[in-house]
């Protein structure tokens, strides 16, 4: 049986295909110019020296302007296929960066990019996508590079498992030094609390003083992935205006999502009837842990909050550093929301860089290495806590080091991880959660059979129906997918791109075939002419030889010239594009009047923010 659940491979292939194709839109000259001019207009009157593609990740494509003083500005777009809620995601990320900048600058600071402008898809050039234009962060590396085990230093059998594996040669003092900055970020976030669980919004209603409130659902990384590669219908997610006032109500929603996901993912969710039953039993028992008061009291200790800010994608790769190993900025805040205190009280999974379910030595080995690494992180956390308390920015009761150690020792760490990570849920539940709450079993593989008696009769009956459904879906392998409109539209665009590529390939192949035929015909004609030459034409032949030699030299010279031209063509094109961006900037720049801003719906953020 699978230790964890796979993505729907049909949906994943489409989704990942789109994130590969979408950045190619910027190969289009007019679109490239529009975006470059748009970004330069935001930063006018600064002068640029370069505009280029900067980075494409799993969720966003970023383009960068470089100015004459070597500072940078970037514009970032969520990619269809990767992001299922582009407008909501963009709005949330901007709100979080504004809030963090405003609330931490005079306390325990977290450096985030300054947002210059953001807007919806309607506000973007060519209505391409929602966007965020922000100052670039000057950096050398990320914290991950300090922790990472270099590929060149690994044993051959570990060289092919990818990057981001913690370096075993780092001793505890060195790890503690590296973890100082990440610990400070985690500590600072824990002090930003609200009375509800959800996403941030600056409430400016009733002409009153703007106030930060929790008004919308918590948009999580898991929710995005459930729709993208888990084929969960969007209707199964919490509505946009849903928030939570207790930890248990939020955990119950997460438990229901685990069940709903398994029901709705048609492909690659199970590999056998037993595997299917095992997965449903685990999810039903996890829900029981939330609903049963006696069980719930064992691991939920802050039912009513206050609920701290939490970022699903916070990790060393997103913490950028300078030469002195100081964090100069933290990026990628789109999946940030207020969450149960228990999330923050669990130590970060990312201390080893790689997720537990992907650890090359398996879950047990992950735990062994994690237990050796956690003390260094807690050393750094205690140091940061002491500094904050001394400076009057933290209360003694707000320390995280003690609760983090307790969460790891008790196993609460794994409940939090399983609640947030739907595809890793099964291996975590059976190895780290089940026996703690429901007693010992002979084997984690067969424990589900013993646990059936713990379910209600109605639950067992439902499982029978779900199993029949899932086995039929294994046979048919149909895609039932509910992505956002943004993704659906690009699917059509991608199909057109593929048709054009196929047509171009066919045309090229035909041209190559014709050229080969013409070359063969010419060769045959030449051979015939050579055969009919006589001794009487020797002088003519000598003359011809001289001419041929001259012609060859001319041809070589032409070829050399052509090669030189080809070599410089790309560079010249890039220079021309940059010149066009600069020259054509003024006719399309946005007029920054109140009426224009109101009409366009573009959001301008002042330097003071």
UniProtKB/TrEMBL annotation:
Residues 507-570 have a biased composition (Low complexity). It comes from the Eukaryota. InterPro entries: AGP_Transferase, Kinase-like_dom_sf. SUPFAM superfamilies: Protein kinase-like (PK-like). Residues 572-586, 594-609 have a biased composition (Basic and acidic residues). Residues 501-609 are annotated as: Disordered. This is Aminoglycoside phosphotransferase domain-containing protein. The lineage of its organism: Eukaryota, Fungi, Dikarya, Ascomycota, Pezizomycotina.
């Amino acid at each position: 049986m699978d230790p964890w659940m796979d993505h729907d491979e049909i949906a994943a292939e489409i989704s990942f295909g789109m994130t590969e194709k979408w950045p190619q839109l910027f190969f289009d000259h007019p679109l490239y110019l529009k975006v470059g001019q748009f970004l330069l207009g935001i930063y006018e009157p600064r002068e640029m020296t370069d505009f280029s593609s900067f980075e494409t990740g799993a969720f966003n494509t970023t383009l960068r302007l470089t100015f004459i003083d070597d500072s940078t500005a970037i514009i970032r777009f969520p990619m269809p296929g990767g992001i299922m809620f582009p407008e909501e995601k963009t709005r949330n990320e901007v709100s979080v960066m504004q809030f963090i900048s405003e609330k931490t600058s005079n306390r325990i600071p977290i450096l985030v990019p300054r947002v210059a402008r953001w807007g919806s898809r309607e506000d973007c050039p060519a209505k391409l996508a929602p966007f965020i234009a922000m100052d670039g962060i000057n950096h050398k590396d990320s914290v991950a590079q300090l922790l990472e085990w270099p590929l060149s230093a690994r044993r051959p059998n570990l060289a092919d498992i990818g990057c981001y594996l913690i370096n075993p040669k780092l001793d505890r003092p060195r790890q503690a030094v590296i973890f100082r900055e990440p610990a400070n970020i985690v500590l600072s976030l824990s002090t930003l609390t609200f009375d509800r669980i959800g996403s941030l919004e600056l409430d400016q209603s009733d002409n009153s003083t703007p106030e930060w409130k929790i008004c919308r659902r918590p948009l999580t990384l898991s929710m995005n992935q459930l729709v993208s590669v888990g084929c969960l219908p969007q209707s199964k997610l919490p509505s946009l205006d849903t928030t939570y006032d207790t930890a248990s109500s939020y955990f119950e929603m997460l438990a229901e999502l685990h069940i709903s996901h398994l029901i709705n993912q048609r492909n690659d969710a199970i590999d056998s009837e037993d595997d299917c039953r095992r997965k449903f039993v685990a999810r039903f028992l996890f829900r029981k842990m939330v609903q049963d008061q006696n069980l719930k009291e064992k691991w939920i200790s802050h039912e009513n909050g206050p609920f701290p800010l939490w970022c699903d994608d916070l990790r060393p790769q997103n913490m950028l550093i300078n030469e002195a190993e100081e964090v100069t900025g933290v990026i990628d805040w789109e999946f940030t929301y207020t969450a149960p205190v228990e999330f923050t009280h669990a130590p970060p999974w990312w201390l080893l860089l790689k997720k537990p379910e992907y650890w090359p030595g398996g879950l047990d080995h992950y735990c062994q290495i994690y237990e050796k690494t956690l003390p260094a992180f807690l050393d750094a956390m205690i140091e940061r806590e002491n500094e904050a308390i001394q400076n009057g920015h933290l209360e003694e009761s707000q320390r995280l080091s003690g609760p983090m150690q307790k969460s790891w020792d008790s196993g609460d760490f794994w409940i939090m991880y399983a609640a947030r990570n739907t595809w890793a849920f099964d291996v975590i539940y059976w190895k780290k959660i089940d026996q703690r709450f429901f007693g010992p079993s002979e084997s984690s593989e067969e424990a589900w059979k013993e646990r059936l008696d713990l379910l209600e009769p109605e639950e067992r009956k439902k499982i029978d129906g779900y199993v029949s459904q899932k086995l039929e879906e294994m046979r048919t392998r149909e895609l039932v997918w509910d992505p956002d409109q943004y993704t659906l539209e690009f699917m059509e665009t991608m199909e057109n791109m593929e048709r054009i590529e196929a047509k171009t390939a066919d045309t090229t192949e035909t041209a190559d075939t014709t050229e080969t035929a013409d070359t063969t015909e010419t060769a045959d004609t030449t051979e015939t002419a050579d055969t009919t030459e006589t001794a009487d034409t020797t002088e003519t032949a000598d003359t011809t030889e001289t001419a041929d030699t001259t012609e060859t030299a001319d041809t070589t010279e032409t070829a050399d010239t052509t090669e030189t031209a080809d070599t410089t063509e790309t560079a010249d094109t890039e220079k021309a594009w940059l010149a066009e961006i600069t020259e054509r900037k003024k006719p399309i720049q946005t007029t920054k009047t109140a009426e224009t801003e109101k009409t366009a719906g573009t959001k301008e953020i002042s330097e003071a923010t």
